[in-house]
């Protein structure tokens, strides 16, 4: 098939000498329910990825292609069946240097918003006043200062998601893993949060792995978009976005490069979904409009 653009892409990133890979996945395989009576789900097959230091990388792909599984393996919450995962040259270990924003927000229901964020900082900041100041700074950043003393049940889903983001960011981790952190947030707040995230990431230059279903969001935020395909979950290509930063100073979406990348990625995702027997849209005739 001919795609509308030929973006800079490669199956596996090789980090330049000046920016050594911070996260490395080599030949990673993961099957859920392997060896059980019914054949297991191959969530990841031969996944190879090298995320350069200080890079913002989006993981994009249809439902079930293994995006969350990649994050959980990088985080150390899940062990691969085979292959190697290295974070800064060592096996992954959950800890304060790694922030994780889950799809489910996992807030403590009996603790206030401030309490939730402070709780994440107990190990990193022993001093109570300092801890509170840090928590308040990040609560303000996600626009929830007025709700610092409220409980999670008093907040909307989108607001709870912002608390989860504040909690992960407040730790100021070297590696930030985010699983659709803006999925429940309304469109306007989402745009503001995207900008805030970019500002924070630029200031700290941490590594970010960001899972999203939104093509626009994937391009807008990332240095590289990792396109994944389902059944079995695998990496299809890694695309260098190549749009100038900072991206909040100009209309990124109006750039020719953005428009081309968007069309290319949509085309690929549409093709993947329509050709995937496991998809609800398998075989449908959804014209490309081109
Ligand atoms: N704990 C589990 N037990 C069994 N199968 C699982 C488990 N977790 C994930 N899977 C399966 O592995 C595959 C990859 O799942 P994963 O959640 O990583 O995909 P995803 O791309 O993040 O999906 P989505 O975009 O819908 O969140 C899917 O087929 C899923 O059903």
TrEMBL record:
SUPFAM superfamilies: P-loop containing nucleoside triphosphate hydrolases (SSF52540). InterPro entries: AAA+_ATPase, ABC_transporter-like_ATP-bd, ABC_transporter-like_CS, ABC_transporter_ATP-bind, P-loop_NTPase. Keywords: ATP-binding, Hydrolase, Nucleotide-binding, Transport. Its EC number is 3.6.3.-. GO terms for molecular function: ATP binding; ATP hydrolysis activity. Residues 23-255 form the ABC transporter domain. Transmembrane segments: none annotated. Belongs to the ABC transporter superfamily. PANTHER family: ALIPHATIC SULFONATES IMPORT ATP-BINDING PROTEIN SSUB (PTHR42788:SF13), TAURINE IMPORT ATP-BINDING PROTEIN-RELATED (PTHR42788). This is Bicarbonate transport ATP-binding protein CmpD. It comes from Devosia equisanguinis.
């Amino acid at each position: 098939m001919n795609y509308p653009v030929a973006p800079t892409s490669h199956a596996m990133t090789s980090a330049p000498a000046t920016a050594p890979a911070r996260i490395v996945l080599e030949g990673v395989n993961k099957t859920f329910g392997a060896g059980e009576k019914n054949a297991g789900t191959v969530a990841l097959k031969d996944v190879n990825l090298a995320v350069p230091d200080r890079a913002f990388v989006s993981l994009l792909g249809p439902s079930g292609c293994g995006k969350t599984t990649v994050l959980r393996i990088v985080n150390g919450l899940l062990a691969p069946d085979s292959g190697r995962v290295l974070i800064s040259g060592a096996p992954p270990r959950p800890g304060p240097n790694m922030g994780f924003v889950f799809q489910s927000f996992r807030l403590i229901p009996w603790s206030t918003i401030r309490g939730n964020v402070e709780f994440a900082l107990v190990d990193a900041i022993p001093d109570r006043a300092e801890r509170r100041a840090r928590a308040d700074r990040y609560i303000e950043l996600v626009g929830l200062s007025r709700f610092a003393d409220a409980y999670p049940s008093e907040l909307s889903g989108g607001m709870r998601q912002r608390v989860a983001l504040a909690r992960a960011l407040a730790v100021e981790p070297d590696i930030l893993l985010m699983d659709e952190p803006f999925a429940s947030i309304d469109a306007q707040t989402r745009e503001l949060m995207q900008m805030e995230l970019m500002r924070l990431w630029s200031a700290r230059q941490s590594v970010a792995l960001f899972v999203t279903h939104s093509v626009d969001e994937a391009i807008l935020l990332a240095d590289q978009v990792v396109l994944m395909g389902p059944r079995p979950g695998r990496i299809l290509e890694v695309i260098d976005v190549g749009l100038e930063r900072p991206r909040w100073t100009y209309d990124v979406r109006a750039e020719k490069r953005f428009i081309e990348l968007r069309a290319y990625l949509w085309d690929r995702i549409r093709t993947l979904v329509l050709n995937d027997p496991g998809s609800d849209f398998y075989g449908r005739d959804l014209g490309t409009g081109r």
